[in-house]
């Protein structure tokens, strides 16, 4: 479970970093985006562990996919609330 939690947080931080780079505005602090990504990934990973029949004991690819989806959802909501759009 601990390894899964660490992997979820790393994945969430990575997705938060990528989101910050895509939506960066001058003067914006990247830390809330990183925290939102990590929190979404951890929440979705733990929820997956509770709802799956096998649980999460060690490294599990399906829990990482669930964590990535959770991080993307939380980051999307975060940027909709803050009024950000992708600068491309």
Topology:
Blueprint: H1 2-23, H2 31-51, H3 61-82
Helix pairs in contact: 1-2, 1-3, 2-3
Describe what this molecule looks like in 3D.
The chain has 88 residues and is mostly helical. The protein has three helices and no strands. Helix 1 (2-23) packs antiparallel against helix 2 (31-51) and helix 2 packs across helix 3. 34% of the residues are buried.
Q: What is the general shape?
A: elongated
Q: State the helical fraction.
A: over 70%
Distance between the termini: 39 Å
**Overall pLDDT confidence:** 83
Evaluate the radius of gyration.
Answer: 13 Å
Strand content: under 5%
User: The biggest beta sheet, please?
Assistant: none
Backbone structural class: mainly alpha
What is the strand tally? 0
Summarize the structure in short.
This protein has 88 residues and is mostly helical.
List keywords for this structure.
3 helices, 74% helix, 88 residues, 0% strand, mainly alpha
């Amino acid at each position: 479970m601990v390894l899964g939690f660490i992997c979820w947080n790393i994945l969430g931080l990575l997705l938060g970093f990528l989101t910050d780079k895509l939506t960066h505005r001058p003067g914006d602090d990247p830390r809330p985006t990183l925290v939102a990504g990590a929190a979404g990934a951890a929440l979705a990973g733990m929820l997956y562990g509770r709802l799956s029949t096998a649980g999460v004991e060690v490294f599990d690819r399906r829990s990482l996919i669930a964590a990535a989806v959770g991080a993307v959802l939380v980051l999307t909501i975060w940027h909709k609330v803050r009024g950000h759009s992708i600068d491309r």
